[in-house]
Each structure stands twice: as structure tokens, then as C-alpha cells.
């Protein structure tokens, strides 16, 4: 609509100009042809030298008027041509859903004239307007490796999705870590009209590993050089972005700049905004060769088809080999090599206006790129200091970045109306399942939660794990929300083995957790803890989904299924590893029970042995877990026998049994229908029993529940009658499903429930 209005204004302005400029001009000339109220002839044939009115000044005046007439006629000719073009493009403005125009700024090879005209160019509505089709797919390539870069990519993608009005196709050159994280994230994000393709960065290492690189990005900082080989051969153009980029406008505006490339221009780049390539930052500073200030490669427009025809691979390799003979290594990774190639072949570059890459490094000249907030298009945090960089307006830039960092990604799951999306099997299945639910059912929200797809970011922080040589390692598995963060440090002190945690957080809370973790010496010293963020959505706490996420992403053959508000005894990790061998857990279906106790004291002198625990139990400092409110949950553990036991002993399943167990990693998942409070662990233990797991109590193991305020979900359970009714309904349906799945053997669960 905006493009249509601008087109009409342009058409009207041109028409009025053609009509009125000649008239005004001739009135002016006619009025100027009178002297003393009498007409003066403009024809040179009629103006005789002997005329008394003829003077040198009047001759000059007539000559200047004749020049003006010719100028006006030339202007009219140009305006008629523009009007003709506007009319020929007229139907395009009425195609509605088929096309959209974007106001675009002119790039130039002259950086000074560029900076002088930046504000006018940035706000221009009536300049040249290359067309980007409404449903045209925009291709974006990003090189991403590791845990931290994966987090950065999410913020970049959020900023792009926030402004976009076109389908997007992201080409991610990723290592194994980033691929695992981002594949899960986008699969669970389910953003319409977004396609993701991955390319194995590790396979590309051999292409660039021969280039010594001092830049902090390492070998992955060189991989943009090989995109012509890596990306599909039928892909003609792509926007290449660094992970530390934030968009402040629709990326389609940048995509439209491709229409301005002429001749042999194949690279769209912004001039480097520091003095790095001028070589005057310090004594003996010797940068790679570049044209003037050189170009920054944080944002690149690549015409892939032309680059391939130009033999880009051969071009950059020969240049790199030649320069490395004297430079020995790159300082700014791919950027040095791009600039060396451009130095020899300046015709390759189309210089983008500098607001397409406002560079916030320490020695930046980026302040000359903008005069107002509306001038900003792309912000590039290209300093190792990132948000701590020194800049006159860094607070504004930081706040803009934080806006997207903490923005609710679920709000970006919006359809692009008028643009057909590719068929997504997962999305179609989800819609089918939801359509089969009865919205008038009083338990509809409970049933719906079972099918809700929660956006999931695996390994939010750096993770390292080396498998144990004896194949007996055990991972502690738990889930938590923001109000249990204080338990993390204590658990890490009690359990030295690997931990897998699923955290249920909003986008803003995820950043609070990140700051909390980075500020904790205890947490930062532990690299064998996997933090998996499951983003909030809906009104229930999806406790069993969280457990499943944490279970699925363990690296050990065994797991200890715990809860975040329990502290394991000191040494439990090593004790469990020995028990795994002793009880042959690798070849038998056993669930090893760790007896659970609790204290009502916030400050507890934690027992260092079983004997000390029994003493505290006798003194009333400790209790068996939930003995006073939910005895059935742990009664089958047989605490009386445990007091004197010195060897493991077997117990039988009973109704409502919910112990904490150690099992192999291939044990069944938790049932997702149970959310919030009630029956979430009970159902899982019931299924283990149905699959003929043996429940074995460990005689020298224990865990203690620490006190905390009641959760929101238990409060809802206690105060909301409908909540309790729906939970009872879900229990009955689960038991019926068990009977159908396990047959006659599962009838005991119905009998036990009726007798309890």
C-alpha cells in the first residue's frame, strides 16, 4: 500500500511539473520581454544593432534567457521520460499480494559523499525503488560453531524475524555442537515460512586449515571464503552475516540492494569503520593490504553465480598464498583475505552505505554513519568486548540488543499472510491432534498441554564430558524453574558427576540465569553440567516434558532421576557407579532406589554418613520424605529395614509408589499428560513396573529434601476443585492406556487403585 501511494505521488508530481513548469517559464520569459511596458522581441532576426533600445546588457539578458529555455526543455524531456516509466510500472503497484517495493539507499564508491548524504539517503521515499516480491525467499548464510555462538545466533535470528515480511531460508554452516543445538531449537520453534539447512563446518576445515589465523574466531572465521563451494550450486545470491549482528530493519531492504549491482560487482560490503587497515594504530602495525580503510565482512552480499564463473576459489587462494609469504598469518580471519582480493580487483565491490554495518569496535568511526535512531539498519558488535565496548551511544545500542535478547520468541511464530508455507509434517500432525480435542471439555487445557511444542535450547552453557573408561558413569537428572536456582550450587558441591538439567524459563529469565551462572565460581568451574532451556508457554508447568528433555540429553549409560530440591549424600556419585557394577545394571532391568528423607530446617548440618543420618532421624531433625502428608509415596522403600540393611534388598511395587531411582538411559519416558502437581512420578514408576523392572533399595545411599515455599502448582491443586477432578480423570485414562498396552498384567494397577 505504501509503495502504491508513493508511486501515485510520483506520478502526480511528474504530471504537474510537466504542465506547470513550461507555463511558468514562458510567463517569466514573456514578462521579462517588456521594457517600460512595451514588448521586446526575442528573435535575433528582429533585434537590429541600430535599434535605439538595443544595448550590450539587453543582448546578454536575451542570451541568458535562451539558455534557460533550453534548460527547461531538457528538464521537461527528463520528466516526460520518468513519467513514461512510472506509467509503465503502474500495474505493478496494483498487484497487491504479488509484489512490494522498498525504499533503498544508493551505495557509492566515494565514502565521503556517502557519509555526507547518509541521512537524506536513509529517509528517502521517492528514490530508486528496487522491487522485492512479497513472497520472495531471502537467503541468509551464517557460520556458527560452539555453545556461545549458538546463543548469539538466536538473538540475531530474533531481530531478523521481528522485522521480516518475507519467507526466509537460513543456511547454517555449523559444527556438530551448533547443529545439535540449533536443529532442536528451530524444530521446536516452528516459525512459519522459515527453512533451515545445515552444512557440516567440520568437513570444511581442510579447505582453510592451511591458513594461520590469529583472530578469536579461529578456523571457523575463515569459512565464509568457501561459501561458493559449500552452498547449493543453484543458489544465486545470499546475505552472509556474522553471529554478532543485530537487525533494526526489514532484511528485505538489504536483499533489494542486489538489484543495484552492475557490471562485475559481486560483493556488497560496508567500508571498515576503524583505522585498522591504515596501519597507524600502533608502532610497527602492519595490516594486510586493503583499499583505503578496507571493508568489513560482518555483512556481505554475495552474487554466488557470478563468483563461481569468476573462479572465486582460485582467486582468493592465490591471493592468500601470496600475502601469507610476507604476512605469515591473518589477524582478522576472512576479512584480511577478502580485502587483499579487493585491493587487486576493486571492480568486484559494490560499497554499501555504512548504516548496513554500524561497527561497534573500540576504535570505530561509526558515529559518522548515523545522525538519528531512524538511520540505523544493522548493528555489529565486532569487538571481543561485545556489550562492554566503548562507544558514545553504547547504552542505546545495548538496550536495542537486550530487547531482542529477552524478547519472547513465541511471539515470532506469526504467519506471513498471502505467502504459502512449505508443508511441515510436524506442524500438520500437531494441528490434527489439537483439532481432535473437545474445546468444551472442562479438562481441555490439560489435554492440550500434552501436545504443546515448547521451544527448546539445548546446552545453553558450555558443556564438556569425557566418558568413563569403565562405562559405569551416572548422570543426575532434574528439572527446575527460576525459583529453584539457589539449589544449583549446593547440588554441584554434593554431586561431582555429570548433571543434566531442564530449566523452564521465559526468554528474559534465561538471560537472568545466564548472568547468575556466569557470576558463580561454583557453576563456572563445572563443565559437565548440561543446562537445557525449555521456554515457557501455556499455563501449566510441564514437569514431565522437562524430565524427558533432561533424560534424552545425557552422555552416560545410566542416570539418577532426582528432583532439584534434593541434595544427594556426599559421595553418592561414586557409590552409584560401584552399585551399577555390583548389581549388573547393564544386563538386568533394575531400578536402584535411593531412599529419600527431608528436613524442615533451612540451615542443616548435612549428615556425612548413614549413622549420622539415623541419629538425626531419631532426634527429629530429619524425617522420611513426606511421611506426614503422603506416606504411600515412599512407604514401600521399607525404611525400617533400611536402617539395619547392609546389602541391597528388593521391594515390590505398591499403589502411589514414587521413589527416586537409578536406571539405564533406555528406560521409558515420563508421560506428558501429567503437568504441574500430581501423579507425574507415580505414573512413571508404574510403567517401570509394567515393563518388569526390579526395584532394589540401596542400603548405604540417601538424599535429603530441602525446605522451600510451596510451588504455584501445588497451590492450584489444593485450592482448585476442577484441577483435582481433571487430575483424577487423567489418572483413569492413563490406567486404561496401561491396560490396553500391557494387557492382563496391568489389571493389578486398577485393582490397587480401587483398594487404596
Automatic annotation (TrEMBL):
Residues 42-62, 83-109 are annotated as: Disordered. Residues 44-58 have a biased composition (Polar residues). GO terms for biological process: protein O-linked glycosylation via mannose. Keywords: Glycoprotein, Glycosyltransferase, Golgi apparatus, Membrane, Multifunctional enzyme, Signal-anchor, Transferase, Transmembrane, Transmembrane helix. InterPro entries: Glyco_trans_8, Nucleotide-diphossugar_trans, Xyl/GlcA_transferase. It holds the Pfam family Glyco_transf_8. It catalyses: 3-O-[beta-D-GlcA-(1->3)-beta-D-Xyl-(1->4)-Rib-ol-P-Rib-ol-P-3-beta-D-GalNAc-(1->3)-beta-D-GlcNAc-(1->4)-(O-6-P-alpha-D-Man)]-Thr-[protein] + UDP-alpha-D-xylose = 3-O-[alpha-D-Xyl-(1->3)-beta-D-GlcA-(1->4)-beta-D-Xyl-(1->4)-Rib-ol-P-Rib-ol-P-3-beta-D-GalNAc-(1->3)-beta-D-GlcNAc-(1->4)-(O-6-P-alpha-D-Man)]-Thr-[protein] + UDP + H(+); 3-O-{(1->[3)-alpha-D-Xyl-(1->3)-beta-D-GlcA-(1->](n)-4)-beta-D-Xyl-(1->4)-Rib-ol-P-Rib-ol-P-3-beta-D-GalNAc-(1->3)-beta-D-GlcNAc-(1->4)-O-6-P-alpha-D-Man}-L-Thr-[protein] + UDP-alpha-D-glucuronate = 3-O-{beta-D-GlcA-(1->[3)-alpha-D-Xyl-(1->3)-beta-D-GlcA-(1->](n)-4)-beta-D-Xyl-(1->4)-Rib-ol-P-Rib-ol-P-3-beta-D-GalNAc-(1->3)-beta-D-GlcNAc-(1->4)-O-6-P-alpha-D-Man}-L-Thr-[protein] + UDP + H(+); 3-O-{beta-D-GlcA-(1->[3)-alpha-D-Xyl-(1->3)-beta-D-GlcA-(1->](n)-4)-beta-D-Xyl-(1->4)-Rib-ol-P-Rib-ol-P-3-beta-D-GalNAc-(1->3)-beta-D-GlcNAc-(1->4)-O-6-P-alpha-D-Man}-L-Thr-[protein] + UDP-alpha-D-xylose = 3-O-{(1->[3)-alpha-D-Xyl-(1->3)-beta-D-GlcA-(1->](n+1)-4)-beta-D-Xyl-(1->4)-Rib-ol-P-Rib-ol-P-3-beta-D-GalNAc-(1->3)-beta-D-GlcNAc-(1->4)-O-6-P-alpha-D-Man}-L-Thr-[protein] + UDP + H(+). It is found in: Golgi apparatus membrane. The chain crosses the membrane at residues 12-31. It is a single-pass type II membrane protein. GO terms for molecular function: glucuronosyltransferase activity; xylosyltransferase activity. It comes from the Eukaryota. PANTHER family: GLYCOSYLTRANSFERASE-RELATED (PTHR12270), XYLOSYL- AND GLUCURONYLTRANSFERASE LARGE1 (PTHR12270:SF48). This is LARG1 glucuronyltransferase. It comes from Motacilla alba.
Amino acid at each position: 500500500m505504501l509503495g502504491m501511494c508513493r508511486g501515485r505521488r510520483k506520478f502526480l508530481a511528474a504530471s504537474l511539473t510537466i504542465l506547470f513548469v513550461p507555463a511558468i517559464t514562458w510567463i517569466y520569459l514573456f514578462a521579462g520581454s517588456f521594457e517600460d511596458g512595451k514588448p521586446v522581441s526575442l528573435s535575433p532576426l528582429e533585434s537590429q544593432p541600430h535599434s535605439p533600445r538595443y544595448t550590450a546588457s539587453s543582448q546578454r539578458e536575451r542570451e541568458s534567457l535562451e539558455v534557460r529555455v533550453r534548460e527547461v526543455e531538457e528538464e521537461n524531456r527528463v520528466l516526460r521520460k520518468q513519467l513514461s516509466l512510472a506509467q509503465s510500472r503502474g500495474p505493478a503497484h496494483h498487484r497487491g499480494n504479488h509484489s512490494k517495493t522498498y525504499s533503498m539507499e544508493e551505495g557509492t564508491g566515494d565514502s565521503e559523499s556517502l557519509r555526507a548524504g547518509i541521512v537524506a539517503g536513509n529517509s528517502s521515499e521517492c528514490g530508486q525503488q528496487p522491487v522485492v516480491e512479497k513472497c520472495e525467499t531471502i537467503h541468509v548464510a551464517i557460520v556458527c560453531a560452539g555453545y556461545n555462538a549458538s546463543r548469539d545466533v538466536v538473538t540475531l535470528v530474533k531481530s531478523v524475524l521481528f522485522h521480516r515480511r518475507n519467507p526466509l531460508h537460513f543456511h547454517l554452516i555449523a559444527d556438530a555442537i551448533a547443529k545439535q543445538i540449533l536443529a532442536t531449537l528451530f524444530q521446536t520453534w516452528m516459525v512459519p515460512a522459515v527453512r533451515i539447512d545445515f552444512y557440516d563446518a567440520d568437513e570444511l576445515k581442510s579447505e582453510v586449515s592451511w591458513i594461520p589465523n590469529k583472530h578469536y574466531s579461529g578456523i571457523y572465521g575463515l569459512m565464509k571464503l568457501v561459501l561458493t563451494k559449500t552452498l547449493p550450486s543453484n543458489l544465486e545470491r545470499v546475505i552472509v552475516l556474522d553471529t554478532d549482528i543485530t537487525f533494526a530493519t526489514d532484511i528485505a531492504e538489504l536483499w533489494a540492494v542486489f538489484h543495484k549491482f552492475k557490471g562485475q560487482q559481486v560483493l556488497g560490503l560496508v567500508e571498515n569503520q576503524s583505522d585498522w587497515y591504515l596501519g597507524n594504530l600502533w608502532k610497527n602495525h602492519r595490516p594486510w593490504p586493503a583499499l583505503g580503510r578496507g571493508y568489513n565482512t560482518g555483512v556481505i552480499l554475495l552474487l554466488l553465480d557470478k563468483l563461481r564463473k569468476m573462479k572465486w576459489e582460485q582467486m582468493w587462494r592465490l591471493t592468500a598464498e601470496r600475502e601469507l609469504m610476507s604476512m605469515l598469518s591473518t589477524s582478522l580471519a576472512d576479512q584480511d583475505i577478502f580485502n587483499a582480493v579487493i585491493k587487486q580487483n576493486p571492480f568486484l565491490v559494490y560499497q554499501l552505505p555504512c548504516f548496513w554495518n554500524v561497527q561497534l569496535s573500540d576504535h570505530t568511526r561509526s558515529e559518522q554513519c548515523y545522525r538519528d535512531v531512524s538511520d540505523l539498519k544493522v548493528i555489529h558488535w565486532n569487538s571481543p568486548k561485545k556489550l562492554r565496548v566503548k562507544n558514545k551511544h553504547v547504552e542505546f545500542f545495548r538496550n536495542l540488543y537486550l530487547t531482542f535478547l529477552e524478547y519472547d520468541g513465541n511471539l515470532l511464530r506469526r504467519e506471513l499472510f498471502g505467502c504459502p508455507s512449505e508443508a511441515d509434517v510436524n506442524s500438520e500432525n500437531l494441528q490434527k491432534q489439537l483439532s481432535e480435542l473437545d474445546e468444551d471439555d472442562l479438562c481441555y487445557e490439560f489435554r492440550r498441554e500434552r501436545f504443546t511444542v515448547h521451544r527448546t535450547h539445548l546446552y545453553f552453557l558450555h558443556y564438556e564430558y569425557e566418558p568413563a573408561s569403565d562405562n559405569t558413569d551416572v548422570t543426575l537428572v532434574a528439572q527446575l524453574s527460576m525459583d529453584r536456582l539457589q539449589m544449583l550450587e549446593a547440588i554441584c558441591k554434593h554431586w561431582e558427576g555429570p548433571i543434566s538439567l531442564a530449566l523452564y524459563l521465559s526468554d528474559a529469565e534465561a538471560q537472568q540465569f545466564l548472568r547468575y551462572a556466569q557470576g558463580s565460581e561454583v557453576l563456572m568451574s563445572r563443565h559437565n553440567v548440561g543446562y537445557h532451556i525449555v521456554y515457557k508457554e501455556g499455563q501449566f508447568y510441564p514437569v514431565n516434558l522437562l524430565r524427558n528433555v533432561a533424560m534424552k540429553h545425557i552422555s552416560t549409560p545410566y542416570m539418577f532421576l532426582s528432583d532439584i530440591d534434593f541434595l544427594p549424600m556426599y559421595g553418592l556419585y561414586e557409590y552409584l557407579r560401584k552399585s551399577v557394577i555390583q548389581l549388573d545394571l547393564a544386563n538386568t532391568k533394575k531400578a536402584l532406589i535411593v531412599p529419600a528423607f527431608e528436613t524442615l530446617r533451612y540451615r542443616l548440618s548435612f549428615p556425612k554418613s548413614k549413622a549420622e543420618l539415623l541419629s538425626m532421624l531419631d532426634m527429629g531433625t530429619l524425617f522420611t520424605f513426606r511421611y506426614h502428608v503422603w506416606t504411600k509415596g515412599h512407604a514401600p522403600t521399607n525404611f525400617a529395614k533400611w536402617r539395619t540393611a547392609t546389602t541391597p534388598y528388593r521391594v515390590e511395587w505398591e499403589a502411589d509408589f514414587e521413589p527416586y531411582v537409578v536406571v539405564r538411559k533406555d528406560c521409558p519416558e515420563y508421560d506428558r499428560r501429567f503437568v504441574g502437581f500430581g501423579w507425574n512420578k507415580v505414573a512413571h514408576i508404574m510403567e517401570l513396573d509394567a515393563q518388569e523392572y526390579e526395584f532394589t533399595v540401596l542400603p548405604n545411599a540417601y538424599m535429603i529434601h530441602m525446605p522451600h515455599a510451596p510451588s504455584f502448582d501445588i497451590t492450584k491443586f489444593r485450592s482448585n476443585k476442577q484441577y483435582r477432578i481433571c487430575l483424577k480423570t487423567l489418572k483413569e485414562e492413563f490406567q486404561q492406556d496401561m491396560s490396553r498396552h500391557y494387557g492382563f498384567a496391568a489389571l493389578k494397577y486398577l485393582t490397587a487403585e480401587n483398594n487404596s
